[in-house]
Amino acid sequence: SAVLRYFNNLVNLEEMTKEVGEALGADLVWDGGQLEGQEARKDREKLMEEMCKESAALREVVKKYPWFVTMLKRARLGELSRNKAVKVKLECVEEKEARVIGNNLIPCLKSRKVIAAGVDQWRLQNRSVGELFK
Questions:
Q1: pLDDT in tens, 40-79
Q2: What is the pTM of this model?
Q3: Are 67 and 98 in contact, with CB atoms under 8 Å apart?
């Protein structure tokens, strides 16, 4: 609901819980459950930018890691690509690596039956994502 989304967007990174994170993730992927087959690439990219501005937690992450928006855009586009491990430290990630890390999410999710297992594979395969989870 819009009310729940409003309050979830107020949660900062330090106060983030698993439940709020899952709700935020669902909103990033499904736009509040309103995913339409006709959405354009620009619309999906714009949604990522808006969500990063609206969510207090995402604003904190983007402030520290500006490439994070690029990674979310690539992951949200959901284009199936060849999975390539990225072993770069979190503080060394740039736009190029962010695009590859974002592209790696979909193959990881498709290779597992459970979403959490796919995300775990993505975290283990991409060093910087693992560092974000700490």
A1: 777 778 888 998 999 999 999 999 999 999 988 888 887 7
A2: 0.73
A3: yes
Number of residues in the chain: 134
89-92, long-range: CB < 8 A, 24+ apart: 89/127, 89/128, 89/131, 90/65, 90/127, 90/128, 90/131, 90/132, 92/128
Residues 6+ apart with CB under 8 A from 99: 70, 71, 74
Burial label, 12 (beta-carbon count in 10 A; 0-12, 13-18, 19+)? exposed
- Using alpha carbons, select from 66, 77, 62 the residue that is nearest to residue 29: 77
| Distances, alpha carbon 44 to alpha carbons 36, 75, 78, in Å | 11, 10, 10
